[in-house]
Specification:
Helix content is 22%, strand content 48%. By secondary structure, the chain is of the alpha+beta class. The chain has a 16-stranded antiparallel β-barrel with strand order 1-2-3-4-5-6-7-10-11-12-13-15-16-17-18-19. Strands 8-9 form a two-stranded antiparallel sheet.
């Protein structure tokens, strides 16, 4: 390429020189024109050199690209060969069963064991009585997950409580109690069935499982819950079934437990609902059976309705014989926005006794709560308040009926630290000639952890 450019240049220069020596044209070409032509030829030669260098660079890049493409093709062939070998080995391994099953990895204790629960301290004063710190309660719950399907949970109540007389005045004595609230094994059979066994919280209504302890927005329990067992020793099947795709579901539980018996004083013949375990006399051989079915219907975020019906039937017994005992509970809960809720239960029981036929203790409770944050005002203290009200009653079917009215508040120091207060007053029918009983107020500081 360089030789060709040289020849072309010499030819142009030769031709130019010939023209100069031609007599007829010699006078027509000046030195200035010749120099301009010479400069143009030199410039074209430089441009040709640059084009040659660029061409050589392009050739080098093309050669490097070809080498990289060849290397990538070799790597692809090696990867395909490895994948084919792995698939063959996996297929062969799947046909071989180990002589002994391979054990699952050991559970990680930091993730599979948990202590949770709550603690409360109460201060109360009845009308005409003295104020006192009447209760300190520590209620730990131990949770252990053995594997993906097997769980264990147990809850305790450790309480320190002042003894008081009939008027609510402290006697100066105190007592410490340790109570096993529940201890149960849970096995997740599949997405819709869980098998439960042990000392179980019973799904008679929803209060025992969802509202007791610090989750309750009023420091004491509804009166009518005294007519129902909170737990029982036995076995249970429970779960939920989806209905449609909008979040509706049917929940269910079916269980069998020891059932109630009588107190330790057999001649008193009083019903014992505390699970029929330990030194409590167990005169009957037939367990009790029960269950609950519920319907949960959400129609918007934080707007939902739940209805449930539950019951238990079986025997209770004392020194004189065995008698029938049954209970039925209707429960309902409604949430209207994140700030307002209403819930309650109706309880009816049947207790057969030796000398008076059948008793029908019953009662109802309804509770409403509203968080002032729903007012959407920039008031930090007010926004932490929730107003709570409850009406509950009990009728022992032996001539005594009590109506109780409660008004109170919950102040959220944090999501898990609550300062609660309420005032409650009673209307008593059949026992108090005045038709009422002293009111009282209770303050409670509670913490969940």
């Amino acid at each position: 390429m360089k030789t060709s450019k040289t020849l072309i240049g010499l030819t142009i220069i030769g031709c130019s020189a010939g023209l100069l020596f031609t007599p007829s044209l010699q006078a027509a070409v000046s030195d200035e024109d010749f120099n301009a032509l010479k400069a143009m030829v030199l410039k074209q030669g430089q441009q040709l050199d640059q084009l040659q260098k660029q061409h050589e660079q392009d050739q080098a890049v093309h050669t490097l690209d070809q080498q990289q493409i060849s290397a990538l093709q070799q790597q692809l062939q090696q990867t395909q060969a490895l994948a084919t070998n792995a698939a063959v080995k996996a297929e062969a391994a799947s046909q071989i069963q180990p002589v002994y099953p391979v054990p699952n990895p050991a559970p990680r204790a930091t993730h599979d064991f948990l202590v949770t629960g709550d603690a409360e301290v109460q201060y109360g004063k009845a009308t005409g009585g003295h104020g006192t710190f009447g209760l300190a309660d520590f209620a730990p719950i131990f949770l252990f997950r053995a594997n993906d399907n097997a769980l264990f949970e147990a809850g305790f109540d450790v309480t320190l409580q002042n003894n008081v007389d009939a008027n609510g005045n402290p006697t100066g004595d105190k007592k410490t109690g340790v109570d096993l609230s529940f201890a149960q094994l849970d096995y997740l059979l599949n997405d819709y069935v869980t098998v439960v066994a042990g000392d179980m919280l019973l799904p008679l209504g929803t209060y025992s499982e969802r509202a007791a302890g610090w989750l309750n927005k009023i420091p004491d329990d509804p009166l009518v819950r005294d007519y129902l067992p909170g737990s029982g020793v036995g076995a249970q099947l429970r779960g939920a079934l989806p209905v449609g795709e909008a979040g509706q579901m049917l929940t269910y539980s079916v269980y069998g437990v020891n059932g109630p018996s009588s107190t330790n004083d057999a001649h008193a013949g009083r019903l014992d609902l505390n699970g029929n375990v330990g030194d409590t006399p167990n005169w009957h051989a037939n367990p009790s059976g029960g269950g609950r079915i519920g319907w949960f219907y959400p129609w918007a975020l934080h707007y939902d309705l739940e209805l449930g019906i539950s019951g238990q039937t079986g025997e209770w017994s004392d020194y004189a014989g065995s008698y029938a005992w049954s209970a039925a509970v209707l429960d309902a809960a409604v949430h209207l926005s994140p700030y307002f809720e209403v819930k309650g239960e109706y309880v009816n029981t049947w207790q057969q006794i030796d000398d008076a036929g059948t008793l029908h203790p019953s009662g109802v409770w309804v509770q409403a709560a509203y968080k002032l944050a729903g007012l959407e005002k920039d008031l930090p203290v007010i926004n932490n308040l929730e107003l709570v009200g409850r009406y509950d009653n009990e009728n022992d079917n032996q001539g005594s009926k009590v109506d109780r009215y409660t008004a109170g508040y919950v102040y959220y120091l944090s999501n898990t630290l609550l300062f609660e207060g309420d005032y409650e007053w009673f209307l008593v029918h059949g026992q108090n000639p005045n038709g009422n009983a002293p009111g009282s107020f209770v303050l409670q500081l509670s913490m969940g952890f």
